[in-house]
Design goal:
Layout lengths: L1 H58 L2 H7 L8 H49 L10 H31 L2
Helix pairs in contact: 1-3, 1-4
Amino acid sequence: MRLKSGLALFLLLVFSTAAYAQESQESAAESVDKLKMQLLEVQGQEEALRARLQDLNEALKPENIERSLAGIGSTRPEELRESRRRQLTSERDGVQAQLNTLETGKQRLETSLRNAEVLAYQQSARPTQMLSASSQRSYQLLMLGGGGLAALALGGGALFYRRRMNHR
């Protein structure tokens, strides 16, 4: 009776540890997927900003500023050109600042993604080593369960030996 309950307790312990490892693996894999999606979004934003920056650089060329103001009549065309150049320069600087911020965020995301992939890989290796001491807590639980099972086996063996000796 004690042996059966000890064995049941040990198996429960092993399966709960395996279930926890599986749950952690899924969460790490989900984290990797979320980070990849965020990285794709950032890359899309980066491409859009780079295209806008290229357009602004093209618009800042003196001949293109002249062309954009060709239909506007003024007594002071130099001021109009200078105003347009300042407007485009200001917009270009804003886009460049956004790009710099986005690049920093992208680098952080890439680092987080690499770390999450390493963690997911490490966690994916755990179920194949189901009884390995992968962490201090699981090691303690494993030792406790194994020690309990050994104590039950010794106790059950001693009782069996006594009964056998008493029946002779």
